[in-house]
Amino acid sequence: MTDLLFYGNTERSHAMRHELPVSIGDPFLLGIIGGRLHIMVSPLESSRIEAVAPDAVYHDLADLGFQELRESGLRMHELDLELVSRAAAAMAVREAVVDPEMPVAVADRLRADGIVLRPDHDAIASRRRVKSREELAGIRRAQVAAEAGLRAAADLLARAVPAGEGLLHDGKPLTAEMVRAELRDACRRRGALAPPDVIVGSLWQGTGHDPGSGPLPADLPIVIDLWPQDSSRGAGRI
Fold first, then answer.
1. What domains are defined for the chain?
2. Rounded to whole angstroms, how far apart are CA atoms 215 and 217?
């Protein structure tokens, strides 16, 4: 059985979020060794992690010597690498497939420790393609929220009337901010949060990926780029 190693946090690493469905902002080492989940865990996160992964093997930062290392005068990036090295040793990993997004400094340290790392995009991506029941439910909730958000935005635009080069709604200029607030509220009410930088504007105005601001133009197509995320387990894309 192939061992796997991941390093990062579950708010940015979709691969790690798939393996551990808990929102964790600080980076940590996660391994699947001999088919069993291993987690380098902070006491601050242990209760939340144990609630979703009770059968995992936990490598507590305290047991790895966090306090000793902190008092040794190491700089934080040096301390983090030493903890990763100790956690990998505790996991008894010798060779592993890794996410190609693993930081270079972490990979260099683990290789210096004698661990063979094999970056493999397809192997990591294939794991995420096999969705859990909870992930599928989250995708469905996010899809329902996206449809509700776009419907709310479309209804608001449909009620607007042209006035010169712009649009009026209830006698006031219709702005990108007004449409964005309406669609974000619709998504929130359906259990999925839309990010603050949802694009609302006309590409014909040359905005590109700019979120858009101010009055919306009349007689031009309005583009809305919306990507709500299921909030039942916090932020994180599936």
1. 4-129 (3.40.350.10), 133-230 (no CATH)
2. 7
What are the φ/ψ torsions at residue 217 (nearest 5 degrees)? -80, 150
For every residue of 117-165, DSSP letters joined together read: EEE-HHHHHHHHHS--HHHHHHHHHHHHHHHHHHHHHHHHHHH-EEETT
Specify the DSSP element, H or E, that contains 166.
Answer: strand 166-169
Q: What is the DSSP letter of 205?
A: G
* CA torsion, ordered 212, 216, 218, 220, to nearest 10 deg: 10
pLDDT, tens digit, for every residue of 133-156? 888 988 999 999 999 999 999 999
Q: What is the pLDDT of residues 181-221, one digit of tens each?
A: 999 999 999 989 898 888 898 866 655 677 888 999 998 88
Distance CA 37, CA 74 (A): 29
Task: Note whether 106 and 84 are within 8 A (CB).
Answer: yes
Classify burial at 4, counting beta carbons within 10 Å of its beta carbon; exposed 0-12, middle 13-18, buried 19 or more: buried
| φ, ψ at 11 (rounded to 5°) | -85, -25
**Secondary structure (3-state) at 169:** strand
Joined tokens for residue 121: 């995009």
Any idea which residue has 């400094």 for tokens?
105
